[in-house]
Amino acid sequence: MKVLSVLGSTGSIGTNTLKLVKEFPDDFRVEGLAAGHNAALLAEQVEAVRPRIVSSGDEKVSAEVQGLLRQRGYDMAATRFTHGVEGNVEVACHPGCEMVLSAISGGAGLLPTYRALESGKGIALANKETMVMAGELMMRKSLEKNLPILPVDSEHNAIHQCLRGGEGKEVRRLILTASGGPFRTTPKEKFSEITLADALKHPTWNMGRKITIDSATLMNKGLEVIEAARLFGVGAERISVVVHPQSVVHSMVEYVDGSMLAQLGVTDMRLPIQYALTWPERWTTPLERLDIYKLPSLEFFEPDMDKFPCLGLAYEALRAGGTAPAVLNAANEVAVEAFLGERLAFTDIPRIIRAVLRAHTPRPADELETVLEADAWAREAARGM
Ligand SMILES: NC(=O)c1ccc[n+]([C@@H]2O[C@H](COP(=O)([O-])OP(=O)(O)OC[C@H]3O[C@@H](n4cnc5c(N)ncnc54)[C@H](OP(=O)(O)O)[C@@H]3O)[C@@H](O)[C@H]2O)c1
Q1: Top CATH class, 321-385
Q2: Mean pLDDT computed over 12-40
Q3: Does the structure show a pLDDT above 80 at 205?
C-alpha cells in the first residue's frame, strides 16, 4: 500500500489522479489533499477519500469546506483542516505520506514540493514550474535524499521510459513533441486578433487554463525544455522540439547509433500518472488502449520560432542559467494571468517576458531564497509593465 498526498487535487491532474487511485483501492491510500478555492469539489473529495489532512487556499475556503462536510454528517475528527502556503507544506510533509503528487499550478507548487523532498517523500511531479524555477536545487536534494522525482508531464514521462533503453552516455539528444497548440496553422499576421476563447481551445489535451494558454504560446514547450534539462542533466543544445499535431508520440530519445526510441500512448494523463506512481513497476492499465490500426497519419514539423517567440525565450533563459528560468517563469505567469483576465493581448505575452528577462542579471540559483527573491522581483517587474 503506497500512501499519497495530492497537491492541487481539484485541478485537471489532481482529479485524474484521484480517479486513477480509485481503480487500485488495495494499492494506494490518499492521506493528504491540498487545493485552492474550489470548496465544493474539495469537500466531495474529502468525503470520498477520508484523508488525514486537508489544506485549502485560505481560511474562508477552509471554513466553507468544513461547513459542507458537517452538513453531510462527515466525521470531522478524522481529518485535520488547514490552509494557505503553510497548509500546502503541511500536507506535502505529512508524516504518514510516502509520495507526493505535485500538481498545484504555477510557482505556488515549488515550496511544498521542495519541502516534501526535503522531508523524505518521493515526488511524482506534474508541476513543471518547480523544475524551471529550482531544478538544480531539486535534483541536488533528490540525490542527497536518494529519492526519485518521477515526471508526470507526458513528454518527460515518455523520455523517462525511453531512457530505460540505453546508458546515459549513449544518448545523443532528447526530442520533446509539441501538439503545436490551436495556432499552429494561423498566419502570424492574424496573431493580433487572437481572443481568450480562441487560445483556450486546445486541439488534443484537456488541461487547466494556465497550461492551456502556455500551450498556445508554446511557452509550455519552453518550460518543458528547461524541465527536461534539469531532470535529465542535458544541455540546451541536446534538447530539440518537434511539432507533432496528433499527440500520439509523447516524446523520443535519439541514441548515438542513430536509433530513436519513442513512447506512444493515448492522450490521457492517467497513463503518465500511473507510470509515475507505480515506477519501477508497470501495472496493467484500467484505461482504453491505443489502437494501432486506427492511428491517424503521424506528422512531424520543425517549430516556427518566429511565430512562437516564447519557445526561443525559454532556450535563452536556460542558456543564461541561474535565476533566469525562474524570472522567465514568473514573468510568464503574470502575463498569462493578465491575458486570462482579458487585460493583455496574446502578442503582449512574449513582449513582457522578453523585457523582464533582459532586465534581469542572473545569479546562481543555489539557495531557495535566491530563487524566491528572483521570482518576486520578476512578478513585480512584469506587473509594472
Ligand atoms: N493538465 C495537464 O494535462 C498537465 C500536463 C502536464 C503538466 N501539467 C502541470 O500540472 C500542474 C497542474 O496543472 P492542471 O492542468 O491540473 O491545473 P489546474 O487544472 O488549473 O489545477 C490547478 C490545481 O492547483 C490548485 N491551486 C492553485 N493555486 C494553489 C495554491 N496557491 N495553493 C493550493 N492549491 C492551488 C487548484 O485549486 P482550485 O482549483 O481549487 O483553486 C487546482 O487544484 C501545472 O504545473 C501544469 O503545468 C498539467
Answers
A1: mainly alpha
A2: 98
A3: no
Kindly report, as residue ranges, where domains of CATH 1.10.1740.10 are found in the chain: 321-385
Q: What are phi and psi of 37, to 5 degrees?
A: -120, 0
* C-alpha closest to that of 114 among 82, 96, 136, 84: 136
pLDDT-based confidence at residue 326 (cuts at 50, 70, 90):
very high
- Average pLDDT estimate for 255-275: 97
Distances (CA, A) of 300 to 35, 176, 242, 303: 37, 11, 6, 9
In this predicted structure, the answer to whether residue 207 has a pLDDT above a threshold of 90 is: no
- Of ligand 1's atoms, which has the minimum distance to the CA of residue 220? 47
pLDDT, mean of residues 107-117: 98
Rounded average pLDDT over 9-36: 98
Residue 206: the pLDDT is 81
Mutate to test the pocket of ligand 1, among 105, 270, 273 (most ligand atoms within 8 A of CB): 105
On the question of pLDDT at 264 being above 90, the answer is: yes
CA pair distance 312, 328, nearest whole angstrom: 11
Q: Do β-strands 2-7 and 28-34 pair in parallel, antiparallel, or remain unpaired? A: parallel
Sign of the torsion angle spanned by Cα atoms 215, 346, 351, 333: negative
Nearest CA to ligand 1 atom 32: 36
Residue 146 Cα to ligand 1 middle (Å): 27
Round to whole Å and give the CA distance between 224 and 155: 8
- Predicted confidence (pLDDT) at residue 202 exceeds the cutoff of 90: no
Mutate to test the pocket of ligand 1, among 91, 100, 150, 207 (most ligand atoms within 8 A of CB): 207
DSSP state of 23: T
Q: Where in the chain is the domain with CATH 3.40.50.720?
A: 2-151
Residue nearest to atom 13 of ligand 1 (CA): 105
On the question of pLDDT at 322 being above 80, the answer is yes
Residues in contact with ligand 1 by the CB-under-6-Å rule are 8-14, 34-38, 57, 88, 103-105, 108-109, 126-129, 153, 205, 207-211, 269
Is it the case that residue 16 has pLDDT exceeding 80?
yes
Cell reading at 345: 493581448
Return the residue matching grid coordinates 516534501. 116
Please tell me the class of the 2-151 domain: alpha beta
